[in-house]
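Recap slide: GNAT family N-acetyltransferase, sequence and predicted structure.
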Amino acid sequence: MNAYLFSTPRLGFRTWQPFDLDDFTAINADKEVMRFFQKPLSREETQAMIDRMLWLFEEKGFCYFAVDLLETKELIGTIGLGWKTFEADFTPCVDIGWRLGKKWWNQGLTTEGALACLDFAKQKGVNEVLSMASVGNTASIQVMKKIGMEYWKDFDHSELADFPKIQRCSLYRIRL
């Protein structure tokens, strides 16, 4: 697979393909990977997420991309840009987010990929990117800091009202 939209020394970023479903379903089904989300996702829910990302890429020219480890061509998860429209005083907005399989944690891959996505956003004319994570998600918050984002505020995520353990989120932003 050489159809990368952009790459880093270790990562290739591309749109989603049908062959990604099994690997991404396994990542989304992992309880530890999904501990700061509402719940692990089924195969059908993963397909729906992929479909939303393909639609977003067509509409906006960005999405949470499929990310391959270049050395092995394995799908390691997703890193990319989203379009958030939930009820909040800062939406609609472009956000940056990530979800990698446990096998690829603590190797600097998320930071490397997120920096590349910020460069991609700048090339697309985006001038501000936000990121949010549950306040207990210190690993994601650390990545936000490493990529130069600044803390803005904490807020109660309107779509997580039924999930009080993860509803309180920290919001970070960066101007490009």
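Residues 6-175 form a domain with the Aminopeptidase fold (CATH 3.40.630.30).
The beta strands are 6-7, 11-14, 64-69, 74-84, 93-100, 128-134, 150-156, 168-175.
(End of recap.)
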